[in-house]
Design brief:
By secondary structure, the protein is an alpha+beta fold. 51% of the residues lie in helices and 19% in strands. The strands form 2 sheets. It has a 6-stranded antiparallel beta sheet with strand order 5-4-3-8-7-6, sandwiched between helices. A two-stranded antiparallel ribbon has the order 1-2. It is globular, with a radius of gyration of 19 Å.
Length: 245
């Protein structure tokens, strides 16, 4: 690998690490990237100069504001965003809740777009944010419909985010079977206490589950309207699948 390519690769790894983990200091970046601290200092300094990385008062680093411009442009270029946006807005109006469109990035679930509900401050996920592969309505949809992904995920130690997070292989296999059978997932406080979500798959032309739609909000509001919200999600997902195909 040539030096310019190596620098770009290291920059990409650093930016993705900050995207997934939030603010980190030089020692943490060095350890997690397996890079000498001097190299991390030089890389962070260069990325700070072009606005891709910012530094807080406590000396830690996070993604810079320039990333927002790049991310917004990248999202606008995705055809599924154009197709999905009217559906997300319709679901938000019909439910009053936060609506998400997500896709896979490696084994993580990334939020491509959302329409915030009235209590969005209670939710942790926003555009560009990620969920672990075993927790959350959309993550568990992907896990249910992708056997290879599930086999990969259950081989590694999984974080128990709340008391309701599924982490055992047998739990995740049973959950996947239930989701495939029902056609939707139920995230009941497995990511955030007090928050629930419902998720459905969105298929591409070949029938693969490439995206997932979800509705999220306060637990009682979501679960009390589960049947209604699932039907709305399934109808919207089917319309998206037809248009994207």
């Amino acid at each position: 690998m040539g030096k310019p390519i190596k620098i770009l690769s290291n920059s990409s790894q650093l930016l993705n690490l900050l995207a997934d983990q939030g603010q980190l200091g030089i020692p943490e970046l060095s350890e997690r990237l397996d890079m000498p601290r001097a190299s991390v200092y030089r890389l962070v300094d260069a990325l700070t100069h072009v606005g891709l990385v910012g530094q807080s008062e406590d000396g830690k680093f996070s993604l810079g504001l320039e990333v927002l411009h790049l991310a917004s442009a990248a999202l606008r270029a995705l055809p599924e965003i154009e197709v999905a946006r009217p559906e997300l807005e319709y679901l938000n109006e019909a439910t009053g809740q936060t609506i998400y469109l997500c896709a896979l990035r490696g084994t993580a679930t990334v939020c491509l777009d959302w329409v915030p509900g009235s209590r969005v401050s209670l939710l942790l996920l926003g555009p560009g944010g990620t969920l672990p592969p075993h927790a959350g309505a959309t993550s568990r949809v992907f896990l249910a419909f992708d056997d290879d992904l599930r086999r990969d995920v259950i081989r590694r130690p999984l974080e128990r985010i709340t008391d309701k997070t599924l982490t055992e292989p047998s739990e995740l296999d049973a959950d996947a079977q239930a989701i495939r059978s029902a056609g939707f997932s139920v995230s009941d406080e497995d990511v955030t206490v007090g928050i629930a979500a419902l998720g459905v798959p969105v298929h591409d032309r070949a029938g693969n589950v490439t995206w997932a739609l979800s509705v999220a909000g306060l637990r009682a509001e979501i679960l009390d309207s589960q049947e209604e919200f699932v039907n709305l999600l399934k109808e919207a997902g089917a319309r998206m699948s037809r248009r994207l195909s």
